[in-house]
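Hello Y.,

Per our agreement to keep a running log of every chain we model this quarter, I'm adding this entry. I've kept the format consistent with earlier entries: sequence first, then predicted structure.
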Amino acid sequence: MIDEVHIRNVALIREASFAPSPALTVITGETGTGKTALLNALKILVGERAGASLVREGCEEAQVEGRFVGEGLPEDGAVVARRIGAQGRSRVSIDGSLASVKELSGGLGQSVDLCGQHEHQRLLSVAYQRALLDEWGASEIAAPLAEYRACLQKANDAAAELARLQELESADAVELDRARFALEQIGKADPQPGEYEELMERMPRLENAEMLVNEAVSAQRSLAGSGGAVEQLEAALSSLDRIAAVDSSIEPVRKLVREAFFSLEDVGRELNAYRDGVDFPREELEAAQDRIAELQGLMRGFGPRMEDVLAQRAEAEEKIREYEGRDELIAQAQKALDTAEGALAGAADALAQARGKVVPRFIDAVQAQMARLEMRGARLEASVQDLPRSQWDSWGSQSFELLFAAGDGLKAQRLGKIASGGEMSRVMLSLKVALGECDQVDTLVFDEIDAGVGGSTARALGAVLRDLAKTHQVIVVTHLPQVAVCGNAHYKVSKSDDALPETSLASITGEARVAEIARMLAGEVTETSLAHAAELLGEQG
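Predicted structure for the entry above:
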């Protein structure tokens, strides 16, 4: 839930702090004072879309910081900060670390439900109505719904595989011919993995065999030929032998020269062996050149790399194999689809039965709350219809829609067709109360929940909101004094008359709260309205 919020430069708000009660918080103020700006700040805090229009005129950016507390969060809560620049750029941080708006809305933002006019529009969506039903009856519906969705996925996968094979069966003859041509051309050459690379490594030696022999001979002569290095070392070694016979200190040098002499003799023998091994036949060179040309032709046609050529051969083989064995494959795919569809039908029936048990209890629970809100003549019904297989979706094999009748003698019809704004507000509130602890929301924010409500209904609305606050943190913007007196915390919104108006937000208690309730009752503060306000507050204990 929301522990505290700090707002700077959002619309008409220059700076404000908001610390809602864990139970019911009411927000009041005259029309046009800036209550919408406060709601916009809360929207920013939970990751809803925000633009430069929310930045206070003359300011560089709007800032909203909030602390969330509750189960699964650190002991001192999680802090969200969001900034909206005058150019519309948004920046988010969560506990000091940069985050995206998507991370905010999909994380902490999910704990807050903003129930305004937009929420009323959501209630008209049959998908949203289904979601409410499944949330309320999750203990009975969740398991068969998960099984149904798993079966639906298997059936869809099986249908896709059958369609693929059937498409293959009627594949363009040109495509099949192309595969056969590729297999024929590549098969003629029959390239082997690594063959081309090996040939390219050998070609320099094959092409330069004569040069390699000549240079090897030249090097051998320089070392071991007449007057070569070996003879020179032999002469040097003889001189060193004579020196060593007289002066043993020369021995290390003599040893080094002797080792060099023997090493050069070995090198000479190695060069002779290399020369003899370079004698490649001309035919071998020509054969290698022809093979490389053949492989390069394949790469031009099916490459550009040899790996691509080999991959095309494998792909062509698989395509032809599949095509030639299509009848058996199609039969197997059809059998798999029939099996999957049978399992899906069973799962759909089990899900329909589970929902069939939940629906009447769900309607009764909502209806009970509607009665508390002075809607005793109104009626909520559920329309459940079996759908053809082609219309089955992830929700199930049946359609579900809430129907509404404003009176006992009236036919129930779609909510959006006959329900007024006030009735929609009360139906929505009834749904929220019925969901109770079933939903995953910690905080409910209501705007325009009291549209078209007055008299005894207003008292009932306050009582229902107070009950809802036993399971949720509830924040409500209201113009009804009967609702305002139910709040555990009360904030008043007011606006200055300056050239650039400024909205202020203040927590009110005691006499200030009595005066605000009096204003809401009579439009002005009088002794009579003050007395009435004190009486209403006194009734709440």
